[in-house]
Every structure is written in C-alpha cells, then in structure tokens.
Q: What sequence folds into this?
C-alpha cells in the first residue's frame, strides 16, 4: 500500500483506508510508507508474485512512479484518486469517493490497459532509456507550468493552481518550431503546446479525443498553433469535449508511433513531471498494466 502523503488528500484519508482494509480482512504487507525513506519500486519488486493488489493513493504522478515495477511484476493496481487532476481515474471511471474506490477490490475486476513509452533520442539517449507513462506527454506550455507551479498552491487550489500558473506563463512565452512524425506522416508548425495521450482525459478537465480509450493501442495528439496565446481561449469548448478536426489553429494526429523534434531542445513532461527533453519517440504497449475498475455495464 502506497498513499502519497504529499498528495492533495493523502494524509487525510490514510487512516480511513487502513481501517477499511482491516475490516474487510485484507492484509497490508507494508503498513507504513514514507517516500523520503522507502523506495516504492524496490518494495513492489521484492514482493512475491501472488499478492492480490498494489494500492496507490495519489494522482497520475504516483502511478507513473510505480509503473516500471507494476509492469515487471504484473501486479494489479488499485488506484485511490487522491491527486490533483486524477486523469487516469477519470478515464477509467474510478470513483472519486475513497470508500467507493476501495470497494473495487470486492466488486470490481482487474482490466488490462495500454501503457505509453517515451524513448529519448540522439543526445538524450543517456537519460535512462525508455520512460513509461499511463496518461499524457506534453511539451511547451504544460512543461513550463509543471516546472513552476508551487507545490503549496497545488495543495491549496487543486487543479485551479495549473490554470492560474498557465495564464501567467502563456503571457511570457512564444510559440516554438516543431516537427511531428506520426506513423510516417510529417507535420511542421509553430506550436504553443504539443500533447500526446495514451488515454482520454488530461490537464484540467480536458479530453484529447472523445473516442480515445486506454485499451485501443493508439496514441492521440494535438498541437496548438494559434496566432496569439489568448486565441487559445476560443478552443476551450472543443478541448473539453474532445471533438477536433485539424485546422490552422489545431493539428490533431492519431497513431501508434509518434516522433517529436524541436529546433531547440524542449523539456518534456510525462504524467505531470519533467523527465526528459526533445527529440523523443512515443509508442504504445498494449495490455501492459492491470488496474481494478468497475464491471462493464450491460447494454
């Protein structure tokens, strides 16, 4: 069990989670967890192969940190959405209520989902090799925002902290030259933001494509290429609905392998954390992670 005490609601719900697990006769193999001391990856990898689930209470970043070990051991994940945006939970329709999410251990079932993989290219090759992700890869405005948004503001304002920071950052930045190659087709433009999603939801209530899913072995992307940063406000309705057609302002692309390069190296955020720089290649691995979710509704 890993409940991130730095997440927005981690400490608040820790005792509640432990009490529910005890009441329902689930044994917790690591009853205490301190990320400053304990290595999450090491703890997961040391466990035997017959454990029932790995419980993570946190957001997309917490899940991302555990991904290499979860994929290696093939342990099912139970996600308690205690982060800021909780986009993986939104896409998987995991209940926001802690007790309802815990009930998935009893009433739900593990579902296999895809995992995206970022591979740094050329001079970045020494930076750790492949980087898995469940949700989103971004460069441009999102990377700048994730670098400067204060942690205290995230805990206080939640998703609105990113909105406040984004407006401040956008007023000072300029679009950048980018080349995007998607399944062999190339697009060149001047972009404010490039986003590539493995799933459906990202950012603060945005949808990459209303048809996107975590089990379609497909990546969906957008490049925002408006003339002025404030023109982006006009895109918000479509960004929230996930219904786009490529225009001069927005380029959308769908594929299985996407390469992104920029004139100058750009920071790349992966599930909310800066982890590498361009150029990069993004691919997808089908059914690489199991996660508890609600049973599929009968038609």
A:
């Amino acid at each position: 069990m890993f409940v991130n005490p730095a997440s927005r609601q981690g400490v608040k719900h820790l005792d509640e989670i432990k009490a529910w697990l005890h009441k329902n006769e689930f044994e917790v193999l690591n009853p205490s967890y301190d990320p400053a001391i304990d290595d999450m990856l090491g703890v997961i990898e040391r466990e035997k192969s017959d454990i029932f689930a790995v419980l993570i209470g946190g957001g997309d970043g917490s899940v991302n940190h555990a991904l290499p070990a979860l994929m290696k051991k093939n342990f099912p994940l139970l996600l308690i959405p205690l982060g800021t945006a909780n986009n993986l939970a939104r896409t998987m329709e995991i209940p926001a209520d802690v007790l309802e999410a815990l009930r998935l251990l009893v009433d739900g079932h593990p579902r296999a989902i895809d995992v995206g993989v970022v591979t740094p290219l050329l001079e970045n090759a020494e930076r750790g090799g492949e980087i898995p992700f469940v949700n989103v890869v971004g460069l441009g405005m999102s990377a700048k925002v994730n670098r400067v948004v204060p942690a205290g503001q995230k805990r206080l304002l939640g998703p609105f902290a990113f909105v406040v920071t984004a407006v401040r950052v956008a007023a000072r930045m300029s679009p950048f030259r980018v080349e995007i190659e998607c399944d062999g087709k190339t697009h060149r433009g001047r972009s404010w933001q490039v986003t590539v999603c493995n799933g459906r939801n990202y950012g603060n209530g945005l949808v990459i494509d209303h048809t996107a899913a975590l089990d379609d072995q497909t990546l969906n992307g957008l490049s925002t290429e408006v003339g002025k940063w404030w023109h982006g406000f006009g895109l918000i309705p479509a960004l929230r609905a996930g219904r786009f057609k490529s225009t001069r302002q927005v380029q959308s692309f769908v594929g299985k392998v996407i390469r992104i390069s920029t004139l100058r190296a750009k920071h790349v955020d992966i599930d909310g954390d800066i982890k590498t720089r361009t150029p990069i290649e993004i691919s997808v691995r089908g059914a690489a992670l199991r996660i508890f979710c609600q049973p599929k509704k009968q038609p």
Notes: The longest helix spans residues 10-23. DSSP finds ten helices and 17 strands in the chain. The CA atoms of residues 217 and 261 lie 23 Å apart.
